[in-house]
């Protein structure tokens, strides 16, 4: 299985705090409106069949469902999915959650989704290329896939690990492993190998003084890539 048990245990231990906007997941709550709007601008979500790979507690999945998408979320953390399902019941926002890997779902539901999202996940798995290939298999011809991850360079180490985990304490210590960060050039190569077309590279920055996240062309730390599958 393409998963790191240490990573799964780490996020499972925090699962009960997933929907607390003041918890360790505060950054995810803060960036969610930005990434949701960016995805929706590329492909209007209403009426689309959408899959969120590595959905965790369901922050993005539930947001896409609120936009009118028929949404499925998958993850390998049972505790995170239990939290996601409970929140879905509480808010009456329907999301289909399942404990399954992207690779296994790709064997069962190839070409079934208009949109696939895989956000803040690739840097936590042993084989990111396997996930990207599975996402490509899952999306329909002409469909769209959105990825986000962390760049690998001295600046990203300073900001994403030293700054975010140790100085500002935005994230728990040990959240990220710098060796697993992925350069945009590397991710672009994976995307092409999976038969996808890269449409846009977008950076995301954080201002520690205003505590505001913004989208822009600075991809030195956090970045997102919009792709599509040729018909």
Feature tags:
eight-stranded mixed sheet; UbiG_MeTrfase; alpha/beta; 8 helices; 26% strand; 231 residues; Rossmann fold; 39% helix; 8 strands
Produce a short descriptive summary.
The protein is an alpha/beta fold and 231 residues long.
What is the fold's blueprint, element by element?
Layout lengths: L4 H9 L12 H17 L6 E5 L5 H8 L3 E6 L2 H14 L4 E4 L2 H7 L4 E7 L8 H11 E12 L3 H14 L16 H10 L2 E12 L4 E5 L5 E8 L2
Parallel strand pairs: 1-2, 1-4, 2-3, 4-5
Antiparallel strand pairs: 5-8, 6-7, 6-8
Helix pairs in contact: 2-3, 5-6, 6-8
Structural features, described:
- With 231 residues, this protein is α/β, with parallel strands linked by helices.
- The chain has one domain (5-229): Rossmann fold.
- It has helices spanning 5-13, 26-42, 59-66, 78-91, 102-108, 128-138, 154-167, 184-193, and strands at 49-53, 70-75, 96-99, 113-119, 139-150, 196-207, 212-216, 222-229.
- Strand 6 and strand 7 form a beta hairpin.
- Helix 2 (26-42) packs across helix 3 (59-66).
- The chain is globular.
- One of its GO terms (biological process) is methylation.
């Amino acid at each position: 299985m393409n998963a790191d048990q240490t990573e799964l245990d780490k996020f499972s231990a925090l699962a009960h705090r997933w929907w607390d906007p003041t918890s360790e997941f505060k950054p995810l709550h803060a960036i969610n409106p930005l990434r949701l709007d960016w995805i929706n601008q590329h492909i209007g979500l209403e009426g689309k069949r959408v899959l969120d790979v590595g959905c965790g507690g369901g922050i993005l999945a539930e947001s896409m469902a609120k936009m009118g998408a028929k949404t499925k979320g998958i993850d390998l953390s049972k505790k995170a999915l239990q939290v996601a399902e409970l929140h879905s019941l509480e808010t009456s926002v329907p999301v289909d959650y399942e404990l399954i890997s992207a690779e296994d779902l790709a064997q069962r539901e190839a070409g079934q989704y208009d949109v696939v999202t895989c956000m803040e996940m690739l840097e936590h798995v042993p084989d990111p290329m396997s996930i990207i290939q599975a996402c490509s298999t899952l999306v329909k011809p002409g469909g769209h896939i959105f990825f986000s991850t962390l760049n690998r360079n001295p600046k990203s180490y300073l900001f994403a690990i030293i700054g975010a985990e140790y100085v500002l304490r935005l994230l728990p210590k040990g959240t990220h492993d710098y060796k697993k960060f992925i350069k945009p050039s590397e991710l672009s190569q994976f995307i092409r190998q999976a038969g996808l077309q890269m449409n846009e590279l977008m950076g995301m920055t954080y201002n520690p003084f205003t505590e505001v996240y913004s989208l822009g062309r600075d991809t030195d730390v956090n970045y997102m890539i919009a792709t599509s599958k040729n018909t």
